[in-house]
Amino acid sequence: MSTGTALPGEPVDNESIARKFGTDANWAEAFIGTRQRHFAVDLNTGQVTHTLADLGAQACAQAMARADLEPRDVDFLVLGTSSPDALMPATVNLIADRLGIDQVSTYQLQSGCAGALQALDLACRLLDEEHLIGVVVGADVCVKHLVLDQKTNSVRPASHVLFGDGAGAAVLASELVPGSIAVRRVLNRYSGLSRTPGQVVRWFGAADLTQPEQPVEQDHKAIAQRVPLLARQAMREVLGMAGWYQASVSYLLPPQLSGRLPQRVANALGLTDVTEISCVADVGNAGNALPFFQLDRLHDRIVAEERAIAIAIEPSKWIKTAVALEGM
């Protein structure tokens, strides 16, 4: 596995958010824990600077270059996102076009934070004698769901400080090579039967624009309570699938919904002798990009025979995902 990442523009800190929206910068730092994020628009003008296809293509190109791959070497492309550029054409095909990839299978998964690992799950299943190399990308442009042209009526608008934009990618191959990361097992479970969604992101068509509903709704209390529980379940289940003991894990890549949540998850898991790899405090909740940002950081640390567990939880309808990784 080789990795690549892409972030739009310069980082936007909490002070800049406070000036733009009239929020409380100290509250954002203390209770959300996210210090900065990157946006695919210019906050001052509202001008779009990067599309999802822009960011996805950049991340894929970097991952392919690190793996010394040409477009003709790629057998399939999988994208996980909650914020495609349009309903049609699928953004995954725009990314393929920019990369010069043609005559291959492409897949686009519509999902929130867990979509990156769902895409990884699908990619692992696609590898076979005919499909030797695939590229998996997770990307989101969350800023499109935020209202940018007015002051908020609250000093605590969590959405404005939580979210960010970005893309990450990984190259998967059926043949493992020294220095790479092996995917040993992937857990992908829908766990929301009869449960109220913890997050709703609405898609507004032309006929919906007169409706007063907000684009994004989140049940922050439910998320804070349920995500650590689902992460604990995911850890236990993926360890069982891999046949590993918890004590054999050297690295934890916890859910990245907010800057404060990873530590809550680590505490819930009872892990004391592992290295936590988190990045959300520095890049914001960039949705499906975040697990690949974590994998990118892991790639430079993990050595042969070391083990890692990555966990992603989607609160929209409570999906738990996890992957067991091992250095080669």
TrEMBL record:
Gene3D superfamilies named in the record: 3.40.47.10
InterPro entries: ACP_syn_III_N, Thiolase-like
Domain called Beta-ketoacyl-[acyl-carrier-protein] synthase III N-terminal: residue spans: 109-175
The organism's place on the tree of life at top rank: Bacteria
SUPFAM superfamilies: Thiolase-like (SSF53901)
Designated name of the protein: 3-oxoacyl-ACP synthase III family protein
